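User: structure tokens for this one?
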Amino acid sequence: MRALRVHENGEPGEVLRLEDVETPAPGPGQVLVRVRAAAVNFPDALLCRGMYQAKPPLPFTPGVELCGEVAELGEGVSGVEPGTRVIGSADLPTGAFADYALMSADTVYPAPASLTDDEAASLFIGYQTGWFALHRRAHLREGETVLVHAAAGGVGSAAVQLAKAAGARVVGVVGGPRKAETATALGADVVVDRRSEDFVAVVKEYTGGRGADVVFDPVGGDAYERSTKCIAFEGRIVVIGFASGSIPTPGLNHALIKNYSILGLHWGLYRQRAPETIPEAHDRLTELADRGLVKPLVSERIGPAELAAGVQRLADGDTVGRLVFTP
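Assistant:
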């Protein structure tokens, strides 16, 4: 089979190589799937760079999120049949940037019939992250205002749709006119181009001075620091990640004075600490997809020859919506 593999850590455009390798065999508790589509995520770029929390042995194939067709079951696997269309996470080092990938049987979920392969491949990590951030951590309520940073990106685009589906008002922050168009298409009520506008002033004006009830922040750095200037009384800032490369140091005295909460979200920990919550969220997301309330915005489909450059563009912040690999 064909696979994009990393033999040494570095920039994705330089280290991802298309190779012919043997098709892996599923071990106990694993499922072999034929990859139908794989969404490109920021962790894929971090994996290439050797900067992700998981460090698979070299050489490895990235690709953490996919839609596939079950091809073979490992020992002890039941409850899923060959030929079933599924979504979920791939088991590294045999990731989804290949013709076939391995998945742990307990991370395999039915693909929503209402979504195409490209869309279904994009529903798992980003939308699960958005669901847990908004509903489990921030306890979002109808009518509240949500400030979403990187609103045209992978997790940001999911957060925009999920917040709107919950009856919230959404202010999306993006970088550039093309991304502003994407955030608008996703349903954001107000879109702020951070390159030419001050989102703090926009949020205050939009809310009549109250501020944002919830801040969804996968960026960190200055985005976090400035969000504290427009957070509402008893607001909640959910820290998702640090795509800016800068990890802020919160002023806890400021949180005390303004009565707001700083919440962390590491979605992967739920798979270890509360695994029953993942299928529950999947059921809710499938229901929303079937009702047409969420739909991953796939902006570009790329093949094996273009994948390395595509992952590099995502790492450089030069993509909008979801970038999806199709073998």
